[in-house]
Design brief:
Mean pLDDT: 90
Largest sheet: 4 strands, antiparallel
Radius of gyration: 19 Å
Structural class: mainly beta
Shape: globular
């Protein structure tokens, strides 16, 4: 599914913000991360973008930011939870959002003002305060000081294309992917090894840029760029060499289903969310894939995140009306996916705490 912003009016009940600490694992280890999670979603009939919060590993959810001017009139596209208190999100109209109190309040962060109409669709944060954002019209932003100031990179290098995915492996090594209009929609992969001072591009063999790329992720030296028609390219040596590959047998609309989001638990274990309600898991670095049943054939699954190899959350948007966004949850590694909730808003991305 290529990125499409959907604006609509539907009825949704307001939910009060729950002020709660996150639920810990049973493990008494004091450094154990909390199982907080956040979800980004589109503007609904209330006129506010959707942010959902769970303090209990995705069992229950409450809405944050409804009524706040920070979320008024925008779609929230992506979200990144640094820790229990610090969470960042991006949206339409060049909006960058953050909370420093776990979502009790949300505020807008000043973005470059000469790019007001840009849709900011992807965010990646490294070392807690080094923030990378990508979006439409070739938009790439970076802040090295926790959002106090921003650098906007030359859009011409990215062909003013839709840069749908960004991933910061380190403050210096960053990959960004998307599509550009050059004799039709084409995939585009760019990277920097010096924090954006210089950029270069990756051109896969055998015309594998023929489909638009949707996202990029990495674990250790393994980097995966994924996108249209179940295609992906993978590097296991930090980007020196690349292998073309695809997930076979996953069909959507009579053709291979798009990989809309892919996460890596480690270099071997990846979970992917696809068109037509498909979820796939590999535990051997893509050599084999297991198709997991969801019963959500009428939906694009857009976002996925996992706490570990057992607990994962998936969100999405319907292929046709009515526009109800599904939230799916598994606690047994995907053997069973259950519908946790259906919201009157399309849902984009989901984030457990990253640090």
């Amino acid at each position: 599914m290529k990125k499409v912003t959907v604006l609509f009016s539907v009825v949704m009940l307001g939910i009060l913000i729950l002020i709660s600490s996150c639920k810990k694992n049973d493990d008494p280890d004091p450094v154990e991360r909390s199982k907080c999670a956040w979800i980004a979603g589109a503007e609904d009939s209330t006129g506010y973008g959707m942010i959902l919060y769970s303090a209990d590993a995705g069992e229950t959810w409450v809405r944050q930011g409804q009524g706040s001017t920070a979320l008024q009139g925008i779609d929230v596209e992506d979200i990144w939870a640094v820790d229990e208190n610090n969470v960042w999100a991006t949206g339409t109209n060049n909006v960058i959002l953050r909370t420093i109190n776990g979502g009790q309040t949300w505020s807008r962060v000043q973005a470059p003002v000469n790019n007001a109409n840009s849709e900011l669709v992807s965010i990646s944060i490294v070392n807690n305060t080094n923030i990378w954002i990508s979006g439409g019209n070739g938009t790439i932003y970076n802040s090295v000081d926790d959002g106090s100031t921003w650098t906007m990179f030359d859009t011409a290098f990215f062909h003013s294309g839709g840069m749908q995915g960004i991933w910061a492996i380190s403050p210096n090594k960053v990959y960004v992917v998307g599509g550009v209009k050059a004799r039709g929609e084409r995939g585009y992969i760019a990277f920097t090894l010096d924090g954006g001072t210089t950029w270069d591009s990756v051109v896969p063999t055998n015309n594998y840029n023929k489909s638009e790329w949707i996202g990029v992720t990495a674990s250790g030296n393994t980097i995966v760029v994924y996108g249209g028609q179940s295609h992906y390219v993978v590097s296991t040596d930090g980007g020196t060499t690349w292998k073309n590959d695809s997930v076979l047998g996953v069909v959507g609309g009579g053709r291979p289903a798009d990989i809309n989001h892919l996460i890596m638990l480690n270099s071997q274990t990846w979970w992917g969310a696809f068109d037509e309600g498909h979820i796939c898991l590999t535990t051997d670095g893509g050599s084999t894939w297991t198709l997991q049943q969801t019963g959500m054939g009428g939906f694009y699954l857009i976002g996925i995140d996992a706490w570990d190899s057992e607990l994962a959350l998936v969100v999405g948007t319907p292929i046709s009306w009515p526009l109800h966004g599904p939230l799916l949850r598994t606690t047994n590694g995907g053997t069973l996916w259950e519908i946790n909730h259906m919201y009157n808003s399309t849902l984009g991305k989901v984030s457990f705490i990253k640090q």
